[in-house]
Specification:
Elements: E1 2-8, E2 11-17, H1 19-28, E3 33-34, E4 41-45, H2 55-62, E5 80-82, E6 85-87, E7 92-94, E8 104-109, H3 112-126, E9 131-140, E10 143-148, H4 155-164, E11 168-171, E12 174-179, E13 185-188, E14 202-213, E15 218-221, H5 224-233, H6 246-260, E16 264-270, H7 277-280
Parallel strand pairs: 2-4, 4-8, 10-14, 14-16
Antiparallel strand pairs: 1-2, 1-3, 5-6, 7-8, 9-10, 9-11, 9-12, 12-13, 13-14, 15-16
Helix pairs in contact: 5-6
């Protein structure tokens, strides 16, 4: 077993695994590597599977793609437990029940997508002060801008067009937010997904936009209740928590309120034919 350190949002973990997985992580998350000296340890095993970096290879290996009615292997129906709180992870199997009070997680993964999602989930579980948002995060002149929305809402399009206008992309899929002692909110780049290269960079979040497609650009400020609702819908952990798991749910709800109450948030309807940069600076 080899090990490397991974540092995201100033939080570090140690990952222990086989040479092939460690080499993939070194390549794909190279800007986020650090010394492996954290007390949080993720043991990743692929010995009982065909580990593949390519998702299409993964599907070919584990699914009968010629038969749409074929039953999926029972392995993928299993749910992952954490202190009796249930997570639905499509292609990651927790090999044991894990207590959050423990700083060790044992995982079985099958491909790079499940590997990345597993590591991302560990950060979300362990570090309560971080808020995980399904969004594109960009920066310019040390100011951060967040664009959240459902799949196909235009997050990656915003990232591409603003990048062409001189903005840096932190990540166009997944961002961590953290409140500071002075009530400012820091936005962190992550290595967890996206169509563009990720940046191990942090900036103060200036504005957050919850976006949808439209024939013309329209923007309006959101009320406190609207901010909470939109953030809740775009929080990555909320997508995986069973609604009945009240203790964990309550903690994450409090975290949303604590962090987003300090952010200027807007509903943004976007046209692909109009300029984006002008409207975000209004």
């Amino acid at each position: 077993m080899l090990k490397i350190g991974l540092c995201v949002a100033n939080k570090s973990v140690v990952i222990c695994s086989s040479k092939d997985i460690i080499e993939v992580l070194k390549l794909e998350m190279k800007d986020f590597l650090c010394e492996p000296n954290s007390s949080y340890i993720i043991n990743i095993d692929s010995s009982n599977s065909v580990f593949s970096k390519n998702l299409s290879d993964f599907k070919t290996t584990f699914f009968d793609t010629t038969n749409n009615n074929a039953e999926q292997p029972s392995l993928f129906k299993k749910q992952c437990s954490l202190d009796a709180k249930v997570y639905d992870i499509s292609s990651v199997l927790f090999k044991q029940t894990i207590s959050k009070s423990e700083s060790f997680i044992d995982l079985l993964v099958f491909n790079f997508v499940s590997l990345r999602n597993a590591i991302r989930l560990c950060f979300m579980i362990w570090f309560d002060d971080l808020l995980a948002i399904h969004c594109s995060g960009l920066s310019k002149n040390n100011e951060g801008f967040l664009f959240a929305g459902p799949t196909a809402a235009g997050k990656s399009t915003c990232a591409k067009r603003l990048n062409e206008a001189g903005f840096d992309i932190l990540n166009d899929e997944f961002i961590f937010l953290e409140k500071q002692s002075n009530n400012s909110v820091i936005m962190y780049g992550t290595p967890f997904g996206g169509d563009f290269s990720s940046s191990n960079k942090s900036v103060i979040l200036k504005k957050a936009f919850f976006i949808s497609k439209s024939l013309s650009n329209k923007i309006k400020s959101l009320s406190e209740s609207e901010i909470f609702t939109e953030t809740f819908k775009n929080n990555f952990l909320m997508m995986q928590i069973k609604m009945k798991e009240q203790p964990l749910l309550s903690k994450k709800i409090f975290n949303i309120s604590k962090i987003m109450s300090n952010v200027n948030c807007y509903d943004l309807s976007l046209s692909l034919d109009e300029d984006i940069e002008d409207i975000i600076y209004e």
